[in-house]
Write a structure and sequence with these properties.
Chain lengths: 290, 411, 297
């Protein structure tokens, strides 16, 4: 409540602009963050620069621009087929996992199931079991069933191994939909199916999206399972192809390697950015283990 | 279409907590029953059991004579206004209102007509395209109300449907609900914390406390003859004064001593059987305790008091005074001019006393129905004097109490 | 219950709905067939001399504790166990959690453009496929790579000089976002009145974090440690793609040793037995954390 000043404003009074005080702490915060940002950015830059450099090496340097690397990679049949394999593998895994997780999470969230708490704990524990442990028995099983070297059977196992965490994630999302809405719909005379389709499902869309994208990103990058379970060149997904590429000509064709992994990274980055709004909610574990 | 609702010995137990205990209550066909009680007393639980969202732990619930314990909410044909609104957040107002009719397979043009009608009545006409998150609390509440009113169910269940509206809108909606009820006579159970709503809208009022039904009666009966201390204190504002007293009888005439005076009981009143000379709690409503200069001729008793607090309300003033060591509240005319610490004379009509057993808290005095009492009624057209009004069910009466005592002894 | 005796059985006991089983069935079938089954099978194989090729691939037998005694005398296994613990403690428990917490706190207080850019870069590092991370860190640490230039020894290949450190840092680089997101969510969910109260009382920033925020975040911290430990214990792809466990056995953590025993040396039985040890270590860590979360507060 400052009193109104009747005096005419002089020049130096006019430029009294209240400025935000920049404290030392705030400055330090931002500077440290920029340094940390560089630490995360630097290694990535190599991939970007080398991909358009006509003469790249291991270090980051100003590229002499060319698109030859891209043309080379896109002209390789094995690169194209590895994209196709990855798409089939990750796509099948994602659809399977998401549908099954949704189907399982709803009753686990809403219905009375004996030993539900213990069951959820087992699910949580299962999602932490090392894949290394499962590789050998699954390999044995697949040999026995004749399922080796198929992208679809490989996806089946990827789906099984990502299902526990997906169920857990999805259940948290469904738990957050107020059950009272379902009550209101029931009183309004809606059938169970209508309630699921018109009330629960629309409100679970963010959860479904997060689960699907999380599963997809993991399946897209999956290495050891397809590495062990597939062998014919046509069925090698991106990560295995890149690994083989590193082993065979890695030391000579930096540019192509960079392009290959860059192209292979773009889908998941785009997916993530697309959904980042919803992701932050997914990490709300709180005291989940208690 | 008119359906009676009946609770028979209904209990609801959550863990170790008895949310509702041995509820026996009949809501007559076409009746508007108001359910009141302090927070956490089991009102919402009662409604939810009636809607089928909660299954009773024990007992039977009947709608229209049909046992519905195992009927799912979908097939009970009730409409409910949720205390928390429970609006579908991903649908706009129109779709929220239309959801129930569509679910029941109504034709599209019929749905559209009803939605528009209902929205008009509730003043939501211009908001049909908005989502719940884009509405104010009061607007949301009206959508919640509309979602129930759009239907023609057997029973309406309303959980504090007007609690979030401003005073003007609340009066308007109250009248609107009363009008709708007049017109369609759908059996209604209405929960509220608002005394005015309870007194003006209800054909009868049911008072609950700590999971137990205390009394069910027409508003005036409840006001004039509260069954126990709880009901006496809960209904009426400001609260009834309670002071200790002593009942004595000689030659077949009873008299009561309180606040330093003794008065014979008025001739119209009857003491309930079993009342004998003992400690009692005397209840005096503030409007029965008047300022001597403003009192009528039948106020034959006079009490000396010292004014403690004066609260002017505009059309009247509440005066808290100290009288024979007790604090009492009385209603004064607006411009009495009394001040704090001033000594005043209070007048009291002995016929308006309430007497309660000091131990059990049960009323021991049956008073005749007083005519022309100025209760809190302001929207009087809400009610009719049909026969349903006269029925009274008292959980507090000796027989009912006997039953509880028995079950308590088993524990 | 007092009334129970007089009123007969409770009418509101929860009922099992068959529809719930119907919805759970497909998921349960998949988990049972391809998860639970292999887990149980692994416990069996771990105690056999099953081999990938040769006669033992068909005529294998139950060998009791033979694999266990073999482990105890296997110096690669012992070294590998230590490397695994070093990796988990250094890269995950300390590195990833501390840096994740630091980032979560700093980002909360940073100006918007820096928050958005740095936050996104950290998260992009996390969503990148592991093989990509392996490649760019391989490039970063090679002789003549960016790291050697920054440190002024262009002829040093740090992946050979300090292999365990490099893979640990690469792993941390990739996974920090996870802890950061967990902690950010935790911080966001703190009751703001408590924080404001502490601020109004004039507590310094440091005191505020040490005495108010960290104790309130305790459940989140424990959850993070548990998840991070479990996830990192089984880390395979990144290390394998960068070093294949080498040079020598310098980065052969247990998951890599499992793979090598099973699929390079064809010892499926012995390899699986080692993977069981990995499960055991995970169980011990989990137990410790759950204990820690209950012991106080
Ligand atoms: N699902 C539940 N689980 C456990 N206890 C419950 C549950 N629902 C209600 N209760 C308890 O039952 C009692 C009655 O609750 P109810 O919601 O019926 O009260 P209310 O009369 O509607 O109160 P208010 O006026 O505050 O809305 C309360 O003590 C409440 O804590
Ligand atoms: Mg309530």
């Amino acid at each position: 409540m400052s009193a109104v000043q009747a005096r005419p404003l002089t020049g130096d009074q006019l430029i009294v602009v209240p400025y935000r005080k920049v404290s030392a702490g705030a400055l330090a915060t931002n500077v440290i963050l920029i340094l940390l940002g560089c630490f995360f950015l630097l290694p990535m830059l190599w991939m970007l620069f080398a991909s358009i450099d006509s003469n790249p090496d291991w270090a980051i340097k100003i590229p002499s621009p060319t698109f030859a690397n891209f043309a080379d990679v896109l002209g390789r049949a094995d690169a194209i087929s590895s994209f196709r394999s990855s798409l089939i593998l990750a796509g099948t895994t994602t659809v399977l996992t998401t549908v099954l997780a949704l189907l399982s999470a709803y009753p686990l969230s809403r219905m009375h199931i004996p030993f539900k708490r213990s069951f959820m704990l087992v699910i949580l524990f299962a999602s932490g079991l090392p894949v290394s442990m499962l590789v050998v028995p699954v390999y044995q099983m697949y040999v026995y069933l004749g399922w080796l070297d198929s992208l679809y059977t490989t996806a089946l196992f990827l789906a099984a191994s990502s299902l526990p965490f997906a169920v857990w994630l999805m259940k948290n999302f469904i738990d957050a939909v107020p059950v009272e809405l379902e009550h209101a719909a029931a009183i309004d005379g809606a059938s169970t199916f209508r309630i699921l389709r018109q009330v629960v499902l629309p409100l679970t869309v963010p959860g479904i999206a997060v689960t699907a994208i999380y599963t997809f990103i993991n399946a897209w990058g999956a290495f050891i399972i397809p590495f062990v379970l597939t062998y014919s060149p046509d069925n090698q997904p991106g990560p295995v192809e890149i690994y083989n590429f590193m082993g065979s000509h890695g030391l000579f064709k930096f540019g192509e390697l960079a392009v290959f992994s860059l192209l292979f990274s773009i889908p998941v980055i785009v997916l993530y950015l697309f959904m980042s709004r919803y992701f932050s909610g997914a990490f709300n574990f709180g005291g989940a283990v208690k | 279409m008119l359906s009676e609702v009946r609770f028979e010995g209904v209990h609801k137990i959550f863990g170790t907590e008895n949310a509702v205990e041995d509820l026996n209550l009949t809501v007559n066909a076409g009746e508007f029953l108001v359910l009141v009680g302090p927070s956490g007393c089991g009102k919402t639980t009662t409604l939810r059991m009636l809607a089928g969202l909660e299954r009773p732990s024990y007992g039977r619930i009947l709608i229209g004579g049909k046992l519905v314990n195992n009927v799912s909410p979908r097939f009970r044909d009730v409409a409910m206004v949720f205390q928390s609104y429970a609006l579908y957040p991903h649908m706009n107002v129109y779709d929220n209102l239309a959801f129930g009719m569509r679910a029941r397979g109504a034709a599209n043009d019929h749905v559209g007509r009803r939605v528009r009608e209902t929205a008009e009545v509730l003043g939501l006409g211009h908001l049909l395209k908005r989502r719940p998150s884009e509405l104010s609390g009061g607007q949301r509440q009206r959508v919640a109300l509309g979602r129930a009113l759009i239907r023609q169910p057997q029973v309406f269940l309303m959980d504090e449907p007007l609690s979030n509206l401003d005073a003007g809108l609340r009066v308007q909606m109250r009248a609107e609900l009363s009008r709708l009820h007049q017109r369609f006579r759908v059996t209604t159970v209405y929960v509220t914390h608002d005394q005015v709503e309870a007194m003006t809208m209800g054909d009868r009022i049911a008072v609950m406390n700590a999971g137990r039904l205390q009394q069910v009666d027409a508003p005036e009966t409840l006001y004039d003859n509260p069954a126990n201390l709880f009901v006496a204190g809960f209904i009426g504002s400001p609260r009834m004064n309670f002071v200790p007293g002593k009942l004595t009888s000689a030659n077949g005439r009873s008299s009561v001593t309180f606040l330093g005076i003794t008065t014979p009981l008025s001739t119209g009143a009857r003491l309930t059987a079993g009342a004998d000379d003992s400690e009692v709690t005397v209840g005096i409503r503030p409007e029965d305790l008047m300022w001597r200069p403003a009192a009528g001729p039948d106020c034959t008793l006079t009490l000396a008091a010292t004014v403690d607090v004066v609260e002017p309300m505009g059309h009247e003033a509440y005066v808290t005074a100290l009288c024979a060591g007790e604090t009492v509240t009385s209603r004064f005319p607006p411009r009495s001019g009394v001040r704090t610490q001033e000594r005043v004379e209070l007048a009291l009509n002995p016929a308006r006393l309430h007497l309660f057993d000091a131990q059990s808290g049960m009323t021991i005095l049956q008073r005749p129905q007083a005519a022309g009492v100025d209760t809190l009624r302001s929207v009087g057209e809400a009610r009719t004097n049909d026969s349903a009004r006269g029925r009274s069910e008292r959980q507090g009466e000796p027989e009912a109490r006997g039953a509880t005592t028995r079950s308590e002894e088993i524990s | 219950m007092a009334v129970a005796g007089t009123l007969g059985p409770r009418l509101d006991r929860e009922r099992f709905q068959w529809s719930s089983l119907l919805m759970l069935a497909p998921g349960l079938a998949l988990l049972g067939g391809l998860f639970l089954g292999p887990v149980l099978y692994a416990f069996y194989i771990g105690f056999t001399n099953l081999a990938l090729v040769g006669s033992r691939s068909r005529d294998y037998s139950f060998t009791g504790l033979e694999n266990v005694t073999r482990m105890l005398g296997d110096y690669v296994f012992v070294k590998s166990s230590w490397l695994t613990i070093l990796f988990v403690v250094g890269s995950a428990i300390v590195g990833q959690s501390v840096l994740g917490m630091l980032l979560a706190i700093l980002l909360r207080n940073a100006v918007v453009p820096i928050r958005v850019v740095v936050g996104s870069v950290v998260i992009v590092a996390w969503v990148l496929p592991e093989i990509t991370v392996a490649l760019i860190w391989y490039a970063f640490s090679q002789a003549g790579g960016t790291l050697s230039i920054l440190l002024g020894h262009t002829s040093s290949n740090y992946l050979v000089l300090v292999p365990m450190l490099i893979v640990s840092v690469a792993n941390l680089w990739r996974n920090v976002a996870f802890s950061m997101l967990v902690f950010s969510a935790g911080l966001r969910n703190l009751p703001s009145e408590v924080l404001e109260a502490a601020e109004v009382e004039g507590a310094s920033v440091w005191r505020r974090y040490r005495l108010v925020i960290l104790p309130l975040l305790r459940p989140t911290i424990v959850t993070n440690l548990l998840l991070v430990t479990i996830l990192n214990l089984s880390e395979f792809t990144l290390i394998y793609a960068m070093t294949q466990g080498g040079p020598g056995i310098e980065t052969t953590t247990l998951p890599i040793y499992v793979y090598q025993e099973a699929f390079v040396f064809h010892q499926l039985g012995y390899g699986t037995a080692i993977s069981l040890v990995l499960v055991l270590i995970g169980a011990i860590f989990s137990l410790l954390f759950v204990r820690a979360s209950r012991s106080q507060v």
